[in-house]
């Protein structure tokens, strides 16, 4: 069995363990991710929900994406760190913030999403595939 991906918030109140490999890893330059990260992008790894175990009680807040569907962000009520996202339209996936990994070096971005909203000062790997918005289904 492969080594699980583990991680959580800064204070340790929220923890996760994920069996399996991410099926998509990206830097997202949409305005929502810029605001949440306080930077030019958010970095994410997306997994099948079936392999995910979360301990601790996260607080949640919803926002509506460009698709019109809700995305729910889970964060720690103690330290405030955003840890994961789920999507109402895609209940079988679970997305974690790359910086929440215990071993962030395991993160391997594949693409940049919402590159059209990126800023010139946010220099990302130029070899990554760039999508103006979300990649096609």
TrEMBL record:
Pfam families documented for this protein: GFA
Stretches assigned to the CENP-V/GFA domain: 5-122
Keywords: Lyase, Metal-binding, Zinc
Family under the similarity heading: Belongs to the Gfa family.
Keyword Metal-binding among UniProt keywords: yes
Organism name: Bradyrhizobium amphicarpaeae
Molecular function terms, GO-annotated: carbon-sulfur lyase activity; metal ion binding
Name this polypeptide is given: Aldehyde-activating protein
